[in-house]
Amino acid sequence: MKLEPVANALDEPILAATAPSGLRVFVHSRPDWTHTFAAFGTNFGSVDRVSGADGRPVPEGLAHFLEHKLFEDQHGDVSDRFAELGASTNAMTGFCGTTYIMSAVAEAGPCLDLLLGFVQDPWFTDELVAKEQGIIAQEIRMYDDDPDWRIFFGLMECLYQRHPVRDNIAGTVESIAEIDAATLRRCYDLFYHPRNMCLVVSGAMSGDAVVERVMRDQSQRPVDTRPAHERVVADEPPGRFREHFEERLPVARPRWMLGIKETIVGGGSRELLRRELATRVLLDLLFGRSSPAFEALYDDGIVDETFGVSYSAEETFGFSTLGGDTDVPERLEERVRAVFAGAVRDGVDAGALGRIRNKVLGGLLRGLDSSENVAHGLITDCFRGLPPFAALELIDELTPEGLQARLTEHVRDDAMATATVMPATA
């Protein structure tokens, strides 16, 4: 395995190679740093609910369950072994991927060995699966009491009718009760194989050191001939499923959120990134902290610092969200919709585009100072089939006319829904 430079818009020292097993490896070596961060990801997340040629279903919450379960083997909790090495570890399951990480300041080599080992050498028993079911069931109940979690997935249940993005990433108490050791092994074998995975090491560890450790590990594993996972497109109607979700929880103030379902999906990785950049810039321009709309809402006491906007998209789904704490949810909704209507009618502020573009560029450049940001970004680009920092090549292509077209196609009444969490009554 030989690392080769990867061309990128920032001329960062990114090296890449593919191990004989099929594992893709990226190294962002910064010898002047003292810290090393590694991320080992698989292209398998909570929305992946069908697998194999026979279409056998994957239980809701299984990706998250696997993430939990890999941290325990016949020797105990893997986190304790990282702590003994003076390092830390964690993992996160998202809609479309699961990533295992390690962070080390001292000698990172043994930590990388441990990361590669515990992710690729699972140990499942029905006894430990039953134990984990109780732990995750408690976690799910905690999520049910979390206002941020409930309002978000309540909104997703309004936007989506069939797509599994509407389902809790952790699953339900009932769905995880269906999981046993055999189910974990079947799904692990389907999704946790080298050609469906990516390793990124960013920081003080040299490329040669990474290659030595990876080759030592991968030489023990057979060549992977299976294709990388291709995500199944759900049979999802274009418009929202229903208009509103409301729940009462023990919160001090009402919390309101508006969601806009993406009605245009697919198109390939580059088009997805272009759509993502345009939408994020558009939302920042209309509702960001320096926008006239946010200043007016804040001055009128309708929103506070909790108000924010976001856009998320993958090949089979996408959505925008806006919201935060407010004492007057109905009034906030009225004002937000009025801002959208005014922008559709009058056009976006072309003069502010340059400022927002520079803000995005500044954020991308600042992210290079964080090995964690670099590693997560490289994994995302890898699974999307994009070169590193591809966003920098597309950000300059944004125009007022393009943003106006994006506004018109994305902000549609039949794609909007709202969610509210109200304070529980005594």
Explain what this protein looks like in three dimensions.
The strands form 4 sheets. Strands 1-2-3-11-4-10-9 form a 7-stranded mixed sheet, with helices on both faces. Strands 12-16-13-15-14 form a 5-stranded mixed sheet, sandwiched between helices. Strands 5-6 form a two-stranded antiparallel ribbon. The radius of gyration is 23 Å and the shape is globular. The protein is built from 15 helices and 16 strands. The model has no long low-confidence stretch (mean pLDDT 93). The N and C termini lie far apart (65 Å). By secondary structure, the protein is α+β, with helices and mostly antiparallel strands. β7 and β8 form a beta hairpin. It has 2 domains: 215 residues, Metalloenzyme, LuxS/M16 peptidase-like (Cytochrome Bc1 Complex, Chain A, domain 1, 2-Layer Sandwich); 180 residues, 2-Layer Sandwich (Cytochrome Bc1 Complex, Chain A, domain 1), CATH 3.30.830. α3 packs parallel to α8 and α9 crosses α15. The protein is 42% helix and 20% strand.
